[in-house]
Prior knowledge:
The protein has 489 residues and is mostly helical. It contains 19 helices and two strands.
Amino acid sequence: xxxxxxxxxxxxxxxxxxxxxxxxxxxxxxxxxxxxxxxxxxxxxxxxxxxxxxxxxxxxxxxxxxxxxxxxxxxxxxxxxxxxxxxxxxxxxxxxxxxxxxxxxxxxxxxxxxxxxxxxxxxxxxxxxxxxxxxxxxxxxxxxxxxxxxxxxxxxxxxxxxxxxxxxxxxxxxxxxxxxxxxxxxxxxxxxxxxxxxxxxxxxxxxxxxxxxxxxxxxxxxxxxxxxxxxxxxxxxxxxxxxxxxxxxxxxxxxxxxxxxxxxxxxxxxxxxxxxxxxxxxxxxxxxxxxxxxxxxxxxxxxxxxxxxxxxxxxxxxxxxxxxxxxxxxxxxxxxxxxxxxxxxxxxxxxxxxxxxxxxxxxxxxxxxxxxxxxxxxxxxxxxxxxxxxxxxxxxxxxxxxxxxxxxxxxxxxxxxxxxxxxxxxxxxxxxxxxxxxxxxxxxxxxxxxxxxxxxxxxxxxxxxxxxxxxxxxxxxxxxxxxxxxxxx
Length: 489
């Protein structure tokens, strides 16, 4: 059916132009978002031109499915996540050495790293509650300012000579950095759920690319800046960039108004949500996936060095395969999550868990399976693991939102904030358990048995999810079908 703009017809009526109205009414205007910017009379007919900015937005929408405003928001969220994980990982290549020179033990140095994740675990549920009281945009601005100050302050710790003061300063700063990261992550997911309610899987897949990128380039940037300017340079640079990005965030991110469009009464807060069996199981799956990602951190390099006399560059290359496979596949899996609908996303999680189990079995390799223990097999295993873990993780956030709403929670930023907090907290808990458990199992039983145990956890979790959801009669509606259009300003 051909379309025309009512505004154009009204303009013609106002101008008392009647000779060519039917001609213009029959003119097909392809984009309903285009705006007529000028009318020119030439030889008895009218020519119109289309506003260039609106035309560009129409082209962007055609190829991405996003409006220009949504695209800007997505770019901003991706940069925020990249910065978030760069802050977390930038000190990895040089801090242990510097801490040892100050007299800090290896255990205390490791605790400095893990303090970040511990704080995220503790504070994320509170941040999920906070986003229902404070606009997520303001939370992100405050988190960026706090994170930037902490990193700039961290750069001055090189001048502290006392071990006790150095340790106290490092612990305190990492605590506040963890608070900032927790607030940032929860607010980002809340905005994501509000601005892209019908494309959560695909958009989250894109954002996760920058999570993997941050974990990959953070240490590389940290090492490069350390070589150029010593201990202080990496922190001063990342801190300055973080604060400098605040004005961009204030302009790009939306103010999300509270809209109660659901007629169901809100059943309660976080303690009511964690009573929902489907959400508990998905959180457990999230925990297992995080453990699988992080158990390698303290043991993979010693294992390769002992078994194959691998150089640090070889170890780094192999680990980069894991991150690359995760990053490349995340948008693909995210798109599939949006296409299949909520009723079948649990099947994707199960497939991802089973695939992760296979990848870790190959990585070990598990004894008695006659799997070759070669470098090339490690590479194949890490690629399989990266692809599968992305599939296991990406549907979890959207699924938790859908099941909470289906159980009677309102479809508003309060619910998405609680889910964001739980999701972030549980994943960070896995980041703590993984290295600790992996190191303990490796020390007592070896790398192969350790990997076999982790693979078994993935397999067991997949079986439990399959049994529960295959026999569950409760299937939530698609999240976007339960929402009215939400306006962001």
